[in-house]
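Dear all,

This email documents one entry for the complex benchmark we are building for the journal club exercise. For each entry we list the sequence lines for every component of the assembly. Then comes the predicted three-dimensional structure of the complex as a token string, followed by one or two observations. Please use this as the template for your own entries, and keep the labels exactly as they appear.
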Amino acid sequence: MIAVVAATVREGLGWNLVDDMRQLFELHFMVNAFRAGTIVAVVAGAMGWFTVLRRQSFAGHALAVVSFPGAAGAVWLGASATAGTFVASVSAALVIALVPRSASGGGDGEDSAVIGTVQALALASGVLFVSLYGGFLNSLNGLLFGTFLGITDDQVTTLIIVGAAVLAVLAGIGRPLFFATIDADVAQASGVPVRMLSVVFLVLLGCAAAEVSQITGSLLVFALLVLPAASAQRLTSRPGSSFVLTIVLAVAITWVALAAAYFSVHPIGFFVTTIGLGVFVVVTVAQSAKVRIQRRGRSGFTSQGLAA
Amino acid sequence: MFSSMSLTMFSSMFSTANPVAGIVHMFGHSFLRRAFLAGTAISLASGLVGYFVVLRRQVFTGEALSHVAFTGALGALAVGAELRVGLYGSCIVFGLLMAALGSRGRADDAVVGSVFAWVLGLGALFLTIYTRSSSASDGTAGVRVLFGSIFGLSRGQTTASVIVSFGVATLILAISRPLLFASIDEAVAGSSGVPVRLLGFGFLGIVGVTAAVATQAVGALLLLGLLAAPAGAAQRLTSRPFTAMWLAAGIAVGSMWAGLSLSYAAPKVPPSFGIVAVASACYLVAIAITAGRRAAGFGTLGDDHTHSHTHSHTR
């Protein structure tokens, strides 16, 4: 139905930028998509910055994958898919945070076997719920690879509330969290509750992963959660400016991807991942060229700093 | 999934009849015979290969392959080629590529993850190209590649899967001894004349073939359920390498049979879910057993190699 409406209004992408912009914001669902996308991008940027710094990007990925059965299960039970993703991701975050790490376990191979199994089981459960619901294949692709169609006002409100709560908590724990991330031992010694902070951070990461998966789909959260932060941390080693840069990049990637997805027939997940990776590749190439030039000038000194 | 209507009909007979008649009835359907035949071969190969995947800490490669399998299969469909050409081609090429990069290519985790996310995004693009370009194509192609379609195998596909799987199993058994040596201690194996590098290459090629053939059964996204879960469970249960290898294969085949039967008995349950759920349950049981043993003070497992060795010597 939406596609039909869009087809009647849409004249396609032209050279007149003002006209293109007017088209982009003409339809309510598209305005909602931009609202939702912006909120998600800000949360993803802020959380992603810490996630990359703490090297927990795969935890973020796992939490987002869990959001898929959450959404599918909620739809099957007749609840809202958004609520389902949040419940699933946050409970998964609590489980990860509270289950003690097997210090005497079989090492890396064993750990990754557990993670792989849990992930496969989560996705399989999602398929089960979709099958129980009675098959709804378009929405299945949306859940996995992202969609910007049909974001309701209620969903935007939910995203704002959760996003604001995440950012507020993050602002509260930001400084000690940064300390604990950079040097856990020293932070512990000077009275920072390191373990508590990591639990709180994982729960926040669960919320963020669920938010991001609303736009990118469960499988592609990496694109918004990790890539802007990884790019920004390569561009500058100063924490403050790279934090701001991360959010700017995340919002820019989301806006361009939304516009591209609107004017084409291809899924938004493809655009988010491609633009995100493109930015990262350009930044990396530029940075290594810069380092090479600097080395030629005075050997032995590189300004990689935090990004390394 | 698509034959669920006929399945409902069959399962009602299954549940009312006595078990033996039910099982006879179950194998009266050609699609189920084919699923069991192909499934047994595929799970045997996955179990054997999976043991080495977990032992060599290459689970992450397995996950990467599952993304590549999806994109390769749909890319082939998008350009109008045969799905299996893209599936096998992409998996084998990528497996060898990973082997070539080796430890040199051990980039930042975040970067690797992002590249794989992009690969999946590309797959989503191919999916829309495919479903839009050819109106005759069915819209479920993407779902079938992601989540498998073992009940929909044709006779030709079944034969191909069985041949490929047995080929994989034979190969891995043939190289199992040197591969085990190279996996446990690469340096010592290399210095005593084992072609470590060649084995690594060959092994990842085999993993690629396994990923491609298993994708048809459980789907690209659930590949790890068949590759990692049985192997993880087996490694927990025993520290003896060859016992663990066969145990992994046994658990994989058992999960396949139980999952297929479960899905036949309850038609709403997709076969892929049944298989992965049983395999995961086996892993959970294995973890519970070892935790129980450790709590009881045996302490002979996995983490305590020296202890377990002396134990077997004294026996």
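Observations: Confidence is low (pLDDT under 50) at residues 1-10, 102-107, 300-308 of chain A. Chain A has one domain: 2-307.
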